[in-house]
Specification:
single chain; 335 residues; 4-stranded antiparallel sheet; globular
């Protein structure tokens, strides 16, 4: 392990993406599909000029509805001329962690596997995987974003329990800077000026999908409420973008099911779940979200987003509970 004093400043990336609004799929191009049974909860991004994915999970042997066991992966794949090729392995199998595109590569933070929640932080680059200082606690399904020389990580689960902590990473160090007003798992984080905003997600304590969110004043550390009509649970975030995600009414109902009701829920056709087939972009001036692309190919939960060749790539995700997609779609980002 190399123990360099990494600063988030080295990981600066562009968060503003020039996208032309459209209401159909003419701006989507299919790239080579993932090998195997498809993945969700994976990590993606560029290292150098190449598109990489890593980790993720699926049900390779039997479907979830037939009692299949979830498998976690450590594979690192790179998109080559002949499709996806093996490019290495992570130190551990991992899914559901935070990941952010950096100038140094793809920063992967936390996650989970069959043994529990992880506190690991890795930098995936063309040279391999470097281990960085661990998180202050094991964490999965947290919200994350970057601003200048700071990376933020908030909420999520730690070994099955909701975490309220908000962390910042700068100058190679993690710090706790506050607590969320309530549990938020699978939320999305963006910056509004200097203020950190956390949107959507689910609250496992009250068993509900959340709409709206909270804004943290950078000076006072106080939180104020934000309004929205959607949840970001299951959305794939990247910078000021989010794609896909769950329907709040359907998800809240699912979180409160018991016994045989759970199996009945899992057996419904794809259209029942109403996964959101949209790419949304956050406007920091109005502190609101704009729907800019609509396509059924984006109707996924647990997909990954990455910048690549001037556009945005949506990779994998669920089409319904337990069913992973192998599809990879490029969204044209040019005006």
């Amino acid at each position: 392990m190399t123990n360099r004093n990494h600063s988030a400043r080295l990981f600066a990336t562009a968060f503003s993406l020039p996208l032309l609004c459209c209401s159909c799929g003419e701006r989507l191009t299919q790239l080579p599909s993932l090998p195997g049974a498809g993945l969700s909860g994976l990590y993606a991004g560029q290292a150098g000029e190449k598109l990489y994915i890593a980790g993720g999970c699926n049900f390779p042997d039997k479907p979830l509805t037939e009692g299949g066991a979830k498998k976690f992966y450590d594979d690192i794949l790179v998109l080559g001329e002949k499709g996806w090729e093996k490019a290495g392995v992570l130190p551990e199998a991992s899914a559901y962690g935070a990941y952010i595109q950096t100038e140094g590569g793809i920063l992967i933070m936390g996650g989970a596997n069959a043994n529990g929640t992880l506190d690991k932080v890795w930098l995936l680059s063309e040279d391999g995987v470097e281990e960085l200082p661990p998180l202050p606690k094991a964490l999965e399904q947290a919200a994350w974003c970057g601003a200048g020389d700071v990376i933020y990580l908030a909420g999520g689960l730690s070994n099955g329990e909701p975490s309220l902590d908000v962390f910042s990473f700068t100058d190679g160090q993690w710090s706790v800077i506050g607590e969320l007003p309530r549990p938020m798992v699978q939320a999305v984080a963006v910056m509004c000026g200097d203020d950190l905003c956390i949107w959507g997600g689910l609250d496992p304590v009250s068993a509900e999908a959340l709409t709206g969110g909270f804004r943290r004043n950078a000076l006072s550390g106080e939180w104020s409420g934000l309004g929205a009509d959607i949840t970001f649970t299951g959305s794939a975030p990247m910078g000021n973008c989010a794609a896909g995600g769950c329907d709040p009414e359907i998800l809240t109902r699912a979180l409160r099911l018991t016994g045989d009701e759970v199996q009945e829920y899992r057996l419904q056709p794809e259209e029942y779940y109403r996964f959101r087939g949209e790419l949304l972009v956050f406007d920091s001036l109005s502190c609101s979200w704009e729907r800019v692309v609509s396509s059924p190919h984006l109707a996924r939960a647990g997909a990954a987003l990455a910048n690549f060749r001037g556009g945005i790539v949506s990779i994998g995700g669920e089409t319904k509970p337990g069913i992973r997609s192998k599809e990879v779609w490029m969204i044209d980002g040019k005006l």
